[in-house]
Amino acid sequence: MTSKETNEVKELYQRLIHAWNNRNANGMAQLYTNEGDMIGFDGSLVSGREEIFAHLKPIFEEHPTPPFVYKVKGIRQVSTDTAILRAIVGMVPPGETELDPSLNAHQTLVAVKEEGKWSIELFQNTPAQFHGRPELVKKMTNELSE
């Protein structure tokens, strides 16, 4: 994977995070392929741009969604037109000044390149609860706070 392609995939992810942080359902949905899948923090699965938009719009309208703080942990090429990005994220709830460790998550983005443009085929946001291992929660929270 060229450094240009790595940067393009990272920029795709950053646009996704920016759209979330700006509560822009359409902006998020447009980053996906027509059949792209999104698996949310609560395990909900939505497929396709229209369904992703319809799922996110009421969330942004009805809930004070905290913004993401993120660190990209790795990007690797799977094939000539597919890449996987891994990141860790945390959130600072509205009215707070520090990350809420219960909202830490691992994020995985599968990007595909079609007609010279990277789009999201799959985005998964998995809670990083580390059951019974509070030291790992603290380590992740500290890394995100740096």
TrEMBL record:
Residues 9-120 form the DUF4440 domain. CDD domains: NTF2_like. Pfam families: DUF4440. InterPro entries: DUF4440 (IPR027843), NTF2-like_dom_sf (IPR032710), Steroid_delta5-4_isomerase (IPR011944). The lineage of its organism: Bacteria, Bacillati, Bacillota, Bacilli, Bacillales. This is DUF4440 domain-containing protein. It comes from Virgibacillus phasianinus.
